[in-house]
Amino acid sequence: xLAGAEKTAVAVGKAVAKAGMAAVTGxxxxxxxxxxxxxxxxxxxxxxxxxxxxxxxxxxGLPGLPSLGTADPADSLPATLRTAVSCPGSASVxxxxxxxxxxxxxxxxxxxxxxxxxxxxxxxxxxKLGDDIRRWRAAGPSIRSDSAVFAAIGPRFVVWYADLxxxxxxxxxxxxxxxxxxxxxxxxxxxx
Length: 192
Fold this sequence. Notes:
The protein is of the alpha+beta class. Helix content is 45%, strand content 17%. A 6-stranded antiparallel β-sheet has the order 1-2-6-5-4-3, sandwiched between helices.
């Protein structure tokens, strides 16, 4: 009888040991999927962060997205204007005072009275740009475009330009007359 009890005790011990191993092994297997899921989620978040950076950096003009801006506001200009303009000074300052030489093709025909044309070029936040546009409208300009791009000729024949998509803001010195300012807008690619 003692031998039978020993056999039963050994059998029960083996069964308990087997159950214990199964429980431990099952826990390890349960932990692996949890770790794998965590790694997948973390990897997905990293991919989303990289994609968000790419979208904001290379497509700053998408409506409703914040802009990361550019190092040099002149980089936001249309190609025709960018090649004609010279912006001395630091590119890190987001308020460039730029010049178009009187001899430039954009000013051909004496649009600026034979003088170099100065421009203020900035990339600003949309709310600030909206304030500028409201102020410009209040001055009673001749509005040439009034949508995502605002372009107008002010009372003293200055050009006011704002692109709500990119945050680009341009204000020029005075032209000879309204016709000269309108011609500049068209040549520079700013007419909307």
